[in-house]
Amino acid sequence: MAAIGAPDSASPDAAPESRLQGFWIRTSDHERLKAAWWATQTVPTLGALISEIECAEAHRLEQDFNDGQPFPPAPRGARGRKAGDDADYRMHSYYIPTTPHRRLLAAWWWTRQESGGYASVSALMAERIPARAEELEREFNAGNPFPPAPKSARGVDPAAARRQSEKLSAQWQRAREVRDADAASAE
What we know:
By secondary structure, the chain is mainly alpha-helical. Helices cover 52% and strands 10% of the residues. The chain is built from five helices and two strands, in the order E-H-H-E-H-H-H. The longest helix is centred in the last third of the chain and has 29 residues, at 158-186.
């Protein structure tokens, strides 16, 4: 298949930005991936692991269906069907970079009608999340499931922590300047 369109905002070079993104997946698959992430800590956050899965799948779809090139962006509001209807499926949200997610959304949109295509990005992720958990189990735990991660398990993204620190430092600096200016005008 010839490459479809120009990369535009789905380009991996777009400015970094993150947001919460939800997927309809099995709770057991979410817990399995979280346990694998917690035990291996191959990336700083569970969201970073989800982002790696998105990047790998977008790359695979681009290779298979678009001559290795990023697809043009999916239309605004592009949606598919929920991944599943059984009681174990629910929305799980992850704080992830928007650029890889948009890239995956574009790849899904342009390949959803292909043989083996997915009804939704959630359906795609519902398949890829347990597969990645299984890969981590094979690589780090002789193929055995990891013990469950603690309910409170959270990672810290170093870049996000740095941005937060810089923002708080700037706020405190502005507050000191206002306080000093107020004190100087009162004299």
